[in-house]
Amino acid sequence: MSTIRQFQVTFDCADPRRLAGFWCEVLGYVVSPPPAGFATWDGFDRSRAPEDRGAWYACGDPSGAGPRLFFQRVPEGKTAKNRVHLDVRVGTGLVGEERLAALEAECARLLPLGAVRERLLYDGKDSCIVMRDVEGNEFCLD
Prior knowledge:
By secondary structure, this protein is of the alpha/beta class.
């Protein structure tokens, strides 16, 4: 029998702190503590070479149940559709109009944070809303 392992989801991005802040708001996550030996992230960044400041950031589920999210700065921009994306589960157990209303309410909450609505997929029973985060990464409200 295999062992269940912890995992983190890593995002390549231009601005790790901004993207981490967005996902903290979406998921109710909190910023991870700074690396050992530092009281704050700003203190950690000041200890690094200028070109390495702000190169990564992390956040996690305060309950410890969800995976850690890690954001690392990369030089290249996003050029194609994500191969992996997050489904934010806001309509679990709901169907039809009730499900659609829950998805639309969450969409309305995320738009002022910088999310972009791409399209609604709805067949009268099941639905999801395809969105983009503040750096253009696709995710779904499901």
